[in-house]
Every structure is written in structure tokens, then in C-alpha cells.
Write a structure and sequence with these properties.
The protein is mainly beta and 105 residues long. It contains one helix and seven strands; from the N terminus they run ββββββαβ.
């Protein structure tokens, strides 16, 4: 999902909800990217850190984040799911919602 801020000093409030599946013995992490290159999670594991350590199942996640993109260009945001090994996936076709709101700076 993209947003085009009206001012370079504006912030972007992001609310993203999704879910992922990890097999037995694998940890699942969620990360948020701006422009598919800038990771916004703030740590090596993404949002939520260890979610299911040693279990298997569908794990929901909601991310809220206030970003300062410092631009007036169209700015895309994407949620990625990663695991500690093996295959992770998104059930039901990876359905997710991302809501972006400009906050005047």
C-alpha cells in the first residue's frame, strides 16, 4: 500500500494486520518495510520477536508504527513474514490489511 505525504515533515501512522504459518520448531517474525528496502522493525527479529517458539500454527499479528519518511513522493509500505528455517507461508492467500494515515508534521 502506498501513500503520498503532502509535506516532507509529515509522519505516516501505519496499522497492518496479517497472519502467517510456521512449521513445528520454527519461530515466526513479522517485518515492516518502506520502499521495499528500509526495514522499520527496529531489531533483527522484526515485530513480535519470538511468537511460537517450538510450536506450529497460524499466528496473527497487528503492527502499529509511526514513520517519518521525509518525502513528498509516493511511499509504499509492505509487511514481510520470515522464519528461522524451513518454509513459512500465509494461509488464505496472504490476506492482510494495511492502513496508512498522514499525520501533519
Amino acid at each position: 500500500v502506498s501513500i503520498t505525504p503532502s509535506s516532507a515533515t509529515s509522519k505516516v501512522w501505519i496499522v497492518a494486520s496479517t497472519h502467517g504459518y510456521a512449521p513445528l520448531g520454527q519461530d515466526l517474525y513479522y517485518t515492516l518495510f518502506r520502499n521495499n528496502s528500509v526495514e522499520l522493525s527496529g531489531n533483527a527479529y522484526g515485530f513480535g520477536n519470538h511468537w511460537i517458539a517450538g510450536q506450529r500454527g497460524v499466528i496473527p499479528m497487528t503492527i502499529t508504527y509511526l514513520d517519518s519518511p521525509n518525502t513528498t513522493s509516493a511511499t509504499p509500505y509492505t509487511v514481510y513474514i520470515k522464519g528461522t528455517g524451513g518454509q513459512v507461508n500465509t494461509p488464505n492467500g496472504g490476506v492482510a490489511t494495511i492502513t496508512l494515515m498522514e499525520v501533519a508534521g
